[in-house]
What does this fold into?
Amino acid sequence: MSPYDLPLRANTNHMLVRHYVLDLTVHFQRKVIGGSIVLFLEPGVVSSKQGEAGSISNTPVQNLSQVSSKHDVSSPITPEPNKVRPPEEPSHLCGGNDVSSVLWGDESEDFTLVLDCCDLTVSKVEELDVTTVDDLKKLDVDQQHANTDHPSSSLVQRVVSMPSVCWRLQHELYVQCSRSPTVHNAQPLRFHTDQWSLQIRKEGVCAPHDFPRAVRICYETKLTGGSVRWTKDQDGRCCVYTMGSPINNRALFPCQEPPVAMSTWQARVRAPCDYTVLMSGKNQAFPKPAETGFLQWEYYVTMPMPASTFTIAVGQWLEAGVKHPNFEVEKTDKPYDKEPSFSLDNDDQQYVCSHMDYPCRFMVSAARAQAVIPHRVFAPPCHLQKANDMVLPLLPLCLTAAHSVLGVHPFSRLDVLIVPSGFSSLGMASPHIVFLSQSVLTGERNLCGARLCHEIAHSWFGLAIGARDWTEEWISEGFATYLEDVFWSHVQKLGCREAEEQRWLKALLRWRRLSDELQNSEEELQVLRPNKKNTGEVSESGASVVKHALNPEKPFMQVHYLKGYFLLKFLADQVGEEKFLDFFKVFVGKFHGQLILSQVSLSCTRALCSFSQNANVAFGRHLRILLSPEQLVLLLEFLLEEPMLSLSTLRLLETTYNLQAQDAEVKHRWCELAVKHKHTAAYRDVEQFLIHDQAMGVYLYGELMVQEDARQQALARRCLSIIKDDMDQSACSVVEEMIL
It folds into this structure.
């Protein structure tokens, strides 16, 4: 296995987590998140003790709860298996309930529950006695779930199998069960952690069906953990957030990371009173008093999702468009403090979904008609005005455009947060929440609007419809990139000809970007399906790896965005955009709530050839005296190909187009020109770009160093020294390799 491959250790073929209940406290002074997580488990069809390391299985993992016969949502979805990386850190051997530590032997006959986990301090693992929950004992346990030898298991199975119409009762029972005491006089749960996993056993239990179904894990995060980022916002105030780490959430809580392990969750998070907790939750949470100096926030989701989509951000954010942004305890006067109570009518009964049973908005006529879902925008104080003036007005327009193209919004509400400057991307979408870089707030509204459209598109492609194999990220990013243009032209209310011209211009820009990336990146990172015919295969236990996931260059590559986009553009050109978008809506209706593989033979050459011959001719029609941001980017890219530009030309460009006031895409090309032609008067622009647009400036460091100009190299080193402590870890390692 390559050192850049990410192991997925969870044995999801043996046992699935169906629901998580998190009870956490955020400690800013210590920079840790601590508390407990309770896992509600259900055995899979593969019930052997432990899978062989190298065996491969195409056997679907069938949930025991209700699943539509139309689609098996639990098929294996991760790439080909390899032997996992040996531990590089000392193992931790502990016993639950203060039992003495013992050597952890792989030869044990006991069943082992394996969870994805790293950089967590686990202090205790407990088996819960849910038979003490009075409300749970009132439920009828039918013969299907009855287990006289393990009554607690029967009760948990009854809860996880409750129909979606009872989800409120189900969630209340989950909470009550999570507070249960440990099983009296039972064998303690022993556990062991290595670099990538947490392993749990109960002595004498040799099969998944006999393993405890409700397990509580007490733990704390570590400052070295890569799932969350402890930093300061643009006003110098402490904050923490999940930043889309390559290791996902395994350093935030023990979990099953393969996408097949789709689960629901509830979270109760305590934070200091002057902090706001935002999370990927269906509900809009309002704080309640907790211990002295803390408030408590509660979120939940009802749509089963991979654990990697869980997102949290805690900081002193302010809400745009609110006169008094400080939240009040038990605040109830907000117009969206509760989700509209949508109920099924007779027409809804005729709409049949193909996914597992959950409360689905696609089945509700009122939700299908809702063009704009409830939404909020948050930002640090210094960016609040820009968020209010730009993001807040654009958001309903983008939501309306998306609804007009794809139909019902899969999620009932949306929060948007302007994240700290060290965020390494322009945006990131999670259920019910979108992170935006501060780089989209400058210049005209084009970059902000297009990025909002891109992230909103992920609600359908990437979240409601996910890839069964993480290496097929083009399914998410290619669709979102294509739909970004469609949504944005709707927002702009462009005519057919204007919309077509704008799409051709963006296609040309992307073609140039893709061509450059194909020439300057490792070939193995350019492949859309690196596992080829083995895509979607896993080991007998469900363990596998994600190829290239830990390569520090991968987060900054756009090949999966661009190749996927060009494939879709090629198909649209063949059938016509109107028919193609009609197909999108049908596709979403059929596959939402499910995981898919591409099953498509990709040929980017053919896609590019379909339009590249006409690209330069089309560009001639686009050039006007007043240039749009996209046209200005293309103009600067053409100028970057010129071997020499005079000082007067550079000055004329700067003054004519007011380049310092343009959006980040334009400023990036302007900085490249300044570096290439050693335009010292613009070095201040380069410095400001590297400091304030960290999501886009990584490779500009390389251009500063390759010129072998002492002043430019000093500029690169000075900028890195200024922002290093707040910089994304992956980006920082790439830059350090360039300049040291």
Notes: The chain is about 30% helix and 20% strand. The mean pLDDT is 83. Residues 496-519 form the longest helix (24 residues).
